[in-house]
Amino acid sequence: MRTIYINGNVITVDEGMPIAEAVVVNKGKIAFVGSTEDALKYKGIFTKVLNLEGKTMLPGMIDGHSHFFYNSLVESFMVNLGAPPLGDITSIEDIIVKFKRFITDNNIKPGSTVIGMGVDESLLKEGRLPTRADLDRVSTENGIYAVHETGSVGVVT
After folding, report:
1. Confidence of residue 61 (pLDDT cuts 50, 70, 90)
2. Domains of the chain by range and CATH?
3. Is the pLDDT of residue 53 over 80?
């Protein structure tokens, strides 16, 4: 199925042509972006033509499995355990230091759990996730939870 979107204000996110009038979508893929006149050259007998009537069309994103919620929490309430460029962690020792600093800087009381997000063992000097013994070096009075960058695995004390 082919659909032509015409007479719009199409934001392309392309420096070479930041704004266009029309988009042609063929079998779920963008086939053309440009003028309404040129887009209509793609019209066939079964083509659906949608008039945007001057409205704005923006690029979209479909992401069936993401962790936007976790990422927003990292910025507000969690320890950022990400490797560069998202963070500054390159070793397990960095993780320990970062957790300790967070506990001190935020006056975290004993018995509270501290969560860090973003560990990626493939980017750590040691090439492994931290162990319970590693996290016990942070604190034995607080729960310490180091969550993998996927959000699907973690190490907890």
Report:
1. low
2. 2-57 (2.30.40.10), 68-156 (3.10.310)
3. yes
